[in-house]
Specification:
It contains 3 helices and 22 strands. With 268 residues, the chain is mainly β. The chain has one domain: TolB, C-terminal domain (Neuraminidase). It has an 8-stranded mixed sheet, with no helix packed on it. It starts with a helix and ends with a strand.
Length: 268
């Protein structure tokens, strides 16, 4: 009954669910994955990471102003040097970001705005987002966003209009707190807010196909790193980027001093 009610509530003029309630219960048991880290990037300036994306040989990061400022950072994966290519201070709370074509989109948390920048980081337009902004990515033709619920929104890059809404389930359970997103080779990857796990989601069915436990990353950290991360409940894993050139994912967290690059593999 709870699943059916959720589906009915989501049937709005803005979009339609991809899967009916009955289909959600038929999602298979997710595969177990592990993340095999191959390299650590020790960054020279930390950030309250809200969005992460690999682009043009670098890693771009959107930060919120909960600690520090709202910025768009460029991280050199070879040296870890961080360059702020845009600094909005505390004028808004930055969230997910994604390159689409030759433009960069950055969402705001509760200000209902999406800023679009050109390749020179000049703001060219501002779009309206009727929901909270959390994670942002894209496929070949559209932007894809999360709002902290179990729903994924497929959006027009021209005006951020909702084209489709997808509910995400792990077997029969709605997966709440979907956060940072990355679209890779036909699948959606998502951080779960305040959870040390990453899930791989089918953008067709909404089923969680696989889940990776990130707790083993703690063993790779120095004692000082762990003390930093454990010092505040906000310093949770968040940030997934994928480089087509290397075939590697980059993972990090809010105010983490490092990023890890590597691959997801099936766990034994």
């Amino acid at each position: 009954m709870r699943i059916l009610l959720a589906c009915l509530l989501l049937f709005t003029p803005l979009g339609s669910l991809t899967i009916p309630a009955a289909a959600a219960e038929k999602c298979p048991v997710p595969k177990k994955l592990s993340f095999q880290a191959e390299h650590e990037i020790r960054r020279d300036t930390v950030g309250f990471t809200e969005g992460l994306e690999a682009h043009d040989g670098a890693i771009y990061e959107s930060t919120g102003d909960f600690f520090g400022e709202t910025r768009i950072n460029r991280i050199d994966p070879k040296t870890g040097h961080v360059t702020a290519v845009m600094n909005a201070g505390k004028s808004y709370f930055g969230e997910g970001l994604s390159f689409f074509g030759d433009q960069l989109y950055q969402m705001t948390y509760r200000e209902h705005r999406v800023f679009v920048f050109d390749k020179n980081m000049r703001k060219v337009r501002t779009l309206f987002n009727p929901r909270e902004g959390w994670g942002l990515t894209h496929d070949e033709s559209q932007l894809i966003a999360s709002d902290g619920s179990n729903r994924i929104y497929f959006l027009s890059p021209q005006d951020f209009a909702t084209k489709r809404v997808l509910a995400v389930f792990d077997q029969g359970r709605a997966v709440q707190n979907l956060n940072e997103l990355e679209y890779v080779q036909g699948a959606l990857w998502a951080n779960i807010f305040e959870d040390w796990s990453v899930v791989r989601i089918s953008p067709v069915t909404g089923c969680v196909e696989a889940r990776a436990d990130l707790q083993p990353l703690r063993a790779l950290m120095t004692a000082a790193d762990r003390r930093t991360i454990d010092s505040d409940d906000n310093f949770v894993p968040n940030g997934i980027a994928y480089s087509q050139a290397s075939g590697l994912f980059a993972l990090t967290g809010k105010y983490w001093p490092m990023l890890y690059t590597g691959r997801f593999v099936e766990a034994n």
